[in-house]
Amino acid sequence: MASPDQDLAPVLDKDGVRLTVDDALATVTLTNPAKRNAQSPALWRALTEAGRSLPGSVRVVVLRGEGQSFSAGLDRQMFTPEGIPGEPTFVELARRDDAGLDAAIAEFQEAFTWWRQSDIVSIAAVQGHAIGAGFQLALACDLRVVADDVQFAMRETSLGLVPDLTGTYPLVSLVGYARALEICATGRYVQAAEAVASGLASVAVPVGELDAAVRDLAGALLAAPRDAVVETKALLRGAADRTYDEQRAAERQSQARRLRDLAGVGE
Length: 267
Known about the structure:
This protein is α/β, with parallel strands linked by helices. It has 10 helices and 10 strands.
């Protein structure tokens, strides 16, 4: 894939992650195509830092991966006895007490949590493999636009593990419990047509058109007034936890805020 953010001075560029900002649009790029953008604790720390580095002007964040794959999942070196230099091995993590292990996993999860914060809309542009942690990173975003060669898979169960990088909640929300269980337990590939049909992706396009499709979507999101998008996102995110009448009330409250804001009338 082309790199539309390469002409911009990066706000952050480290450990396989580059953040660039163009006014209201930010782009987070995974920059290790030689390893199919494999993920490691260092990359997760860089993703967390990218989220904390976003200027207040940013309204839309695009997440993309250089090369033929979005992200092929965990760096295989993490599965070796020696692990990744400077990082705890799986055995060392397993030997920690419950609080220590929980804290380590919680730190890893931070790289996946900020994409849905209320004041931005995040879009994952996904081509090729999005496996395990790569699948979960795509799921962390509000929206997914995929290339027609995409291959999602949740392989943790086949390794004797569970998906623990925040992917289970959005997966069930998007495709339902039964399909989510089948996808995770079998580790099978979900390709472009099924991703769109099941709600995992908004649209599938040819690989060469992925960047353009994401730019068009980002432009459409930026064309809407920011406060209206923020209020709408909050309404939709909370709908599953409300009753029908509670959602009606939430709509009224949100609309009252918008009308007063537009009219310049204080509450």
